[in-house]
Write a structure and sequence with these properties.
By secondary structure, the chain is an alpha+beta fold. It is 46% helix and 18% strand. The chain has a single domain, classed as PX Domain. It has helices at residues 46-59, 79-98, 101-104, 107-114, 119-126, 134-143, 146-153, and strands spanning 3-13, 21-30, 39-45. β2 (21-30) and β3 (39-45) form a beta hairpin. The protein starts with a strand and ends with a helix. Belongs to the sorting nexin family. Its main location: cytoplasm.
Length: 156
């Protein structure tokens, strides 16, 4: 079984405002039976990764969860350098997570990687309070072609 996960295409949202942030495209391609959709593409920001890591930690028991790149407020160097370092760190984090069978069993991870649901929507879905099951939410997103549309948009 092979799972490729790439974190790419960082984009600054709300640039120039006090609430600007960077989000990253997460592209997943797999033949693993663990995943509902075999390819997906979503955009996530750093604080969503922080939430995901916290949830994985809660549910993983004694299994160590990989570290995220640090949240630096005093970064010395260019913003582009910082964003690229963080992108690499987020990619390494996800690569390690998808190789761990215990972490792979967490449905929050699957919704994070394969749907564009917000964090509260993911929580509601996992707790059975959403309008869809985890599988339905992932398939709905896959069928809507959102993942492919985003992938196509970024091609030069």
């Amino acid at each position: 079984e092979l799972t490729t996960v790439r974190v790419q295409d960082p984009r600054v949202q709300n640039e120039g405002s006090w609430n600007s942030y960077v989000d990253y495209k997460i592209f997943l391609h797999t033949n693993s039976k663990a995943f509902t959709a075999k390819t997906s593409c979503v955009r996530r920001r750093y604080r969503e990764f922080v939430w995901l890591r916290r949830q994985l930690q809660k549910n993983a028991g004694l299994v160590p969860v990989p570290e995220l790149p640090g949240k630096s407020t005093f970064f010395v160097g260019s913003t582009d350098e910082f964003i690229e370092k963080r992108r690499q760190g987020l990619q390494q984090f996800l690569e390690k997570v998808v190789q761990n069978v215990v972490l792979l069993s967490d449905s929050r991870l699957h919704l994070f990687l394969q749907s564009q649901l917000s964090v509260p929507e993911i929580e509601a879905c996992v707790q059975g309070q959403g309008s869809q099951t985890v599988t339905e939410a992932i398939l709905h997103y896959a069928m809507s072609n959102c993942g492919w549309a985003q992938e196509e948009e970024s091609r030069p």
